[in-house]
C-alpha cells in the first residue's frame, strides 16, 4: 500500500508540476519530462534511494508517468510548431521554407511552388540534373566495371546455347581465351567459340561474334544487337 501511495503521489505531483512549467515554457516542460524519464530508467537498473527511487516499482511509475506526459505534450508541441510556422510564413518566408523543409519535404515543395515559383523551377531543374548525373554515373560504373565484360560474355553464351542442337554439351572457353571489346556507351562485341555436339553427336568447334548491349534502365538485362555464327 505504501508503494502504491508513493506512485500516486509521484504521478499527481508530477502532473501538477508539468502543468505549472507548461505555462512558462513548453520546451522546458518537454526537456523536464525527458530528464525525469532518464532518471526513472536509470533507477530501474540501479535504485537511487537518496532521491526516493529505491524501489523499482516506484521507478517504473515515474517512467510510465513520463511516457504519459510526453503523449499529453505532443498536441501542445504540434500546435506551438504550427503557430511558429504561421508566424514565420508572414515575417520571414525564407526561414519558414527552411524549417518546413526539415519537417516535411513534400509540403515544403508545395509551399515553395506557391511562395517562390521561380525558386521552385530552379530547384526542380537542379534535382532533375542531379538525377541525370547520378544515372549517368551509375551507368558508367556498370559499363566500365571489371565484371561488365564477364556479364557480356555470359549473356552471349546464353544466346549461343539457344541456337545449338545440343546446348547441354556446350563447352565455352575462359574469357581470357576469347576477345571481348567494349563499344559505345555500354555495348560489347564478344568474339569467341564454343565446342558442342551437333545433331549427329559429333563434337565441333563453332566460332561466333555477338554484339550485345546492357539494357537501360533495366540494368540487369541485356539485349542482342547482332549474332554471326560460323560452322
Describe this structure in words.
The chain is α+β, with helices and mostly antiparallel strands and 231 residues long. The chain has seven helices and four strands; from the N terminus they run H-H-H-H-H-H-H-E-E-E-E. The protein has a four-stranded antiparallel β-sheet with strand order 1-2-3-4, with helices on one face. Strand 3 (203-215) and strand 4 form a beta hairpin. Helix 3 runs antiparallel to helix 4. The longest helix has 36 residues, at 56-91. The protein is elongated, with a radius of gyration of 35 Å.
Beginning-to-end CA distance, first to last residue: 97 Å
C-alpha Rg (nearest Å): 35 Å
What pattern of helices and strands is seen along the backbone?
HHHHHHHEEEE
What is the 3D form? elongated
Structural class comes to: alpha+beta
Question: Order of strands in the sheet with the most strands?
Answer: 1-2-3-4
Could you report the average pLDDT, rounded to the nearest whole number? 84
- Main β sheet profile: 4 strands, antiparallel
Please give the share of residues in helix.
55-70%
Q: Say what oligomer this is.
A: single chain
Count all strands and give the number: 4
**Approximately how much beta-strand content do the residues carry?**
15-25%
The stretches of 5 or more residues where confidence is low (pLDDT under 50) are none
User: What count of helical segments does DSSP give?
Assistant: 7
Amino acid at each position: 500500500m505504501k508503494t502504491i501511495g508513493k506512485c500516486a503521489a509521484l504521478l499527481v505531483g508530477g502532473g501538477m508540476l508539468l502543468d505549472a512549467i507548461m505555462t512558462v515554457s513548453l520546451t522546458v516542460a518537454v526537456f523536464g519530462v525527458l530528464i525525469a524519464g532518464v532518471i526513472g530508467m536509470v533507477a530501474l537498473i540501479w535504485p537511487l534511494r537518496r532521491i526516493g527511487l529505491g524501489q523499482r516499482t516506484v521507478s517504473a511509475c515515474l517512467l510510465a508517468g513520463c511516457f504519459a506526459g510526453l503523449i499529453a505534450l505532443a498536441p501542445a508541441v504540434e500546435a506551438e510548431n504550427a503557430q511558429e510556422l504561421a508566424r514565420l510564413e508572414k515575417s520571414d518566408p525564407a526561414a519558414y521554407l527552411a524549417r518546413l523543409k526539415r519537417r516535411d519535404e513534400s509540403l515544403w515543395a508545395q509551399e515553395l511552388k506557391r511562395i517562390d515559383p521561380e525558386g521552385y523551377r530552379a530547384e526542380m531543374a537542379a534535382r532533375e540534373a542531379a538525377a541525370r548525373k547520378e544515372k549517368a554515373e551509375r551507368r558508367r560504373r556498370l559499363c566500365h566495371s571489371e565484371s561488365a565484360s564477364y556479364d557480356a560474355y555470359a549473356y552471349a553464351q546464353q544466346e549461343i546455347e539457344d541456337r545449338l542442337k545440343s546446348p547441354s554439351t556446350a563447352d565455352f572457353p575462359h574469357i581470357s581465351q576469347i576477345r571481348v571489346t567494349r563499344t559505345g556507351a555500354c555495348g560489347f562485341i564478344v568474339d569467341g567459340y564454343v565446342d558442342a555436339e551437333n545433331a549427329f553427336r559429333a563434337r565441333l568447334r563453332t566460332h561466333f561474334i555477338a554484339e550485345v548491349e546492357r539494357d537501360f534502365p533495366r540494368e540487369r538485362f541485356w539485349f542482342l544487337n547482332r549474332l554471326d555464327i560460323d560452322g
